[in-house]
Amino acid sequence: MLYRAAAHTRQVPVLVDHRVLEGGSDLTVMEYLRPVSVAEGAAFHRSIAGREPAVAALAAHIDTVHARGAREQPWWGPLDDNPANVLRGADGRLVVADLFFADGPALYATVRDDPDRIVRDYPEHLRRHMTELPLGSSGGWPDGDAERMRHGLAAADRRLRG
Asked: Which residue from 72, 145, 138 is spatially nearest to 130, judged by alpha carbons?
Protein backbone atom coordinates (compact mmCIF):
# COMPACT_ATOMS: atom_id res chain seq x y z
CA MET A 1 0.00 0.00 0.00
CA LEU A 2 2.79 2.43 0.89
CA TYR A 3 4.68 1.82 -2.34
CA ARG A 4 1.59 2.63 -4.39
CA ALA A 5 0.38 5.59 -2.32
CA ALA A 6 3.79 7.23 -2.04
CA ALA A 7 5.06 6.38 -5.54
CA HIS A 8 4.83 10.04 -6.56
CA THR A 9 7.46 10.95 -3.92
CA ARG A 10 10.05 8.66 -5.57
CA GLN A 11 11.20 7.88 -2.00
CA VAL A 12 9.82 4.34 -1.99
CA PRO A 13 10.84 1.51 -4.30
CA VAL A 14 9.16 1.21 -7.67
CA LEU A 15 6.72 -1.67 -7.27
CA VAL A 16 7.02 -4.04 -10.22
CA ASP A 17 4.56 -6.65 -8.97
CA HIS A 18 2.76 -7.68 -5.81
CA ARG A 19 0.84 -10.87 -5.22
CA VAL A 20 -0.88 -12.25 -2.16
CA LEU A 21 0.09 -15.89 -2.02
CA GLU A 22 -1.86 -18.82 -0.69
CA GLY A 23 -1.28 -19.30 3.01
CA GLY A 24 -0.95 -15.67 4.05
CA SER A 25 2.34 -14.77 2.40
CA ASP A 26 3.08 -11.94 0.00
CA LEU A 27 5.45 -11.70 -2.93
CA THR A 28 6.74 -8.22 -3.65
CA VAL A 29 8.92 -7.52 -6.67
CA MET A 30 10.53 -4.11 -6.78
CA GLU A 31 13.22 -2.31 -8.68
CA TYR A 32 16.84 -3.26 -8.09
CA LEU A 33 18.19 -1.39 -5.05
CA ARG A 34 21.63 -1.08 -3.52
CA PRO A 35 22.49 -0.76 0.18
CA VAL A 36 23.64 2.52 1.70
CA SER A 37 25.86 3.15 4.71
CA VAL A 38 24.40 2.82 8.19
CA ALA A 39 24.98 6.54 8.72
CA GLU A 40 23.12 7.48 5.53
CA GLY A 41 20.24 5.13 6.36
CA ALA A 42 19.96 6.44 9.91
CA ALA A 43 20.01 10.05 8.67
CA PHE A 44 17.18 9.32 6.22
CA HIS A 45 15.11 7.76 9.01
CA ARG A 46 15.76 10.82 11.20
CA SER A 47 14.56 13.08 8.40
CA ILE A 48 11.34 11.06 8.14
CA ALA A 49 10.81 11.10 11.91
CA GLY A 50 11.43 14.85 11.94
CA ARG A 51 9.01 15.41 9.04
CA GLU A 52 11.68 17.40 7.21
CA PRO A 53 10.29 19.23 4.16
CA ALA A 54 12.09 16.98 1.66
CA VAL A 55 10.29 13.90 3.04
CA ALA A 56 7.10 15.43 4.48
CA ALA A 57 4.82 13.85 1.86
CA LEU A 58 6.46 10.45 2.39
CA ALA A 59 6.13 10.79 6.17
CA ALA A 60 2.40 11.56 5.80
CA HIS A 61 1.90 8.42 3.69
CA ILE A 62 3.86 6.35 6.21
CA ASP A 63 1.64 7.67 9.02
CA THR A 64 -1.54 6.83 7.10
CA VAL A 65 -0.48 3.29 6.23
CA HIS A 66 0.87 2.64 9.71
CA ALA A 67 -2.35 3.85 11.35
CA ARG A 68 -4.41 1.62 9.07
CA GLY A 69 -2.22 -1.37 9.90
CA ALA A 70 -2.63 -0.71 13.60
CA ARG A 71 -6.42 -0.60 13.19
CA GLU A 72 -6.62 -3.75 11.06
CA GLN A 73 -3.87 -6.04 12.32
CA PRO A 74 -3.58 -7.56 15.78
CA TRP A 75 -0.02 -7.33 17.11
CA TRP A 76 0.97 -4.49 14.77
CA GLY A 77 4.48 -3.35 15.53
CA PRO A 78 6.12 0.05 15.64
CA LEU A 79 7.83 1.49 12.57
CA ASP A 80 11.08 -0.26 11.72
CA ASP A 81 13.81 2.35 11.63
CA ASN A 82 16.56 -0.11 10.73
CA PRO A 83 19.09 1.82 8.60
CA ALA A 84 19.32 -1.21 6.30
CA ASN A 85 15.76 -0.41 5.17
CA VAL A 86 17.07 2.65 3.36
CA LEU A 87 18.41 1.81 -0.09
CA ARG A 88 19.53 3.54 -3.25
CA GLY A 89 17.83 3.20 -6.60
CA ALA A 90 19.82 2.88 -9.83
CA ASP A 91 19.14 6.58 -10.44
CA GLY A 92 20.82 7.54 -7.14
CA ARG A 93 17.74 8.46 -5.12
CA LEU A 94 17.22 7.16 -1.57
CA VAL A 95 14.17 5.03 -0.87
CA VAL A 96 12.79 3.44 2.26
CA ALA A 97 11.41 -0.10 2.30
CA ASP A 98 10.09 -2.67 4.75
CA LEU A 99 8.91 -0.28 7.47
CA PHE A 100 6.02 -2.29 8.86
CA PHE A 101 6.07 -5.51 10.85
CA ALA A 102 4.26 -7.50 13.48
CA ASP A 103 5.21 -7.38 17.14
CA GLY A 104 6.72 -10.85 16.87
CA PRO A 105 7.65 -11.44 20.51
CA ALA A 106 4.12 -10.56 21.70
CA LEU A 107 2.49 -12.47 18.84
CA TYR A 108 4.47 -15.66 19.41
CA ALA A 109 4.01 -15.43 23.19
CA THR A 110 0.27 -15.42 22.49
CA VAL A 111 0.65 -18.39 20.12
CA ARG A 112 2.26 -20.28 23.01
CA ASP A 113 -0.01 -19.06 25.82
CA ASP A 114 -3.38 -18.47 24.16
CA PRO A 115 -3.56 -20.23 20.77
CA ASP A 116 -7.36 -19.91 20.82
CA ARG A 117 -7.00 -16.12 20.56
CA ILE A 118 -4.68 -16.48 17.57
CA VAL A 119 -7.16 -18.83 15.88
CA ARG A 120 -9.94 -16.27 16.43
CA ASP A 121 -7.84 -13.33 15.15
CA TYR A 122 -6.04 -15.02 12.23
CA PRO A 123 -7.99 -17.42 10.03
CA GLU A 124 -6.16 -20.68 9.34
CA HIS A 125 -5.61 -19.85 5.66
CA LEU A 126 -3.67 -16.69 6.64
CA ARG A 127 -1.28 -18.30 9.11
CA ARG A 128 0.00 -21.34 7.27
CA HIS A 129 3.59 -20.04 7.41
CA MET A 130 3.36 -18.36 10.80
CA THR A 131 5.89 -20.59 12.55
CA GLU A 132 8.27 -20.62 9.57
CA LEU A 133 9.18 -16.95 9.95
CA PRO A 134 12.36 -16.22 11.89
CA LEU A 135 12.39 -13.77 14.73
CA GLY A 136 14.96 -11.35 13.33
CA SER A 137 15.87 -9.70 16.60
CA SER A 138 16.11 -12.87 18.67
CA GLY A 139 17.40 -15.51 16.28
CA GLY A 140 15.82 -18.85 15.53
CA TRP A 141 13.36 -20.89 17.50
CA PRO A 142 14.44 -23.02 20.47
CA ASP A 143 14.42 -26.73 19.62
CA GLY A 144 10.86 -28.01 19.25
CA ASP A 145 9.24 -24.61 19.86
CA ALA A 146 7.83 -24.13 16.34
CA GLU A 147 6.43 -27.66 16.37
CA ARG A 148 4.78 -27.08 19.77
CA MET A 149 3.22 -23.86 18.46
CA ARG A 150 1.90 -25.67 15.35
CA HIS A 151 0.36 -28.37 17.54
CA GLY A 152 -1.21 -25.77 19.85
CA LEU A 153 -2.72 -23.91 16.88
CA ALA A 154 -4.04 -27.15 15.36
CA ALA A 155 -5.71 -28.04 18.67
CA ALA A 156 -7.23 -24.55 18.89
CA ASP A 157 -8.51 -24.90 15.30
CA ARG A 158 -10.20 -28.18 16.26
CA ARG A 159 -11.80 -26.54 19.32
CA LEU A 160 -13.08 -23.65 17.20
CA ARG A 161 -14.64 -26.01 14.66
CA GLY A 162 -16.25 -27.93 17.53
From this structure: 145
Q: Is residue 47 a contact partner of residue 53, using CB atoms and an 8 Å limit?
A: no
Specify the amino acid at residue 125.
Answer: H
Please name the residues in contact with 48: beta carbons below 8 A apart, sequence gap of 6 or more. 55, 58, 59, 62, 96
For residue 141, name the pLDDT band (cuts at 50, 70, 90): confident
The residue ranking higher by pLDDT, 57 or 129, is 57
Q: What percent of the chain clears pLDDT 70, i.e. is strictly above it?
A: 95
- Nearest residue to 119 via CA among 64, 78, 160, 86: 160
The per-residue pLDDT for range 2-15, each reduced to its tens digit, is 999 999 999 999 99
Q: What does each C-alpha distance from 18 to 1, 4, 45, 88, 151 come to in angstroms?
A: 10, 10, 25, 20, 31
Residue type, 42: A
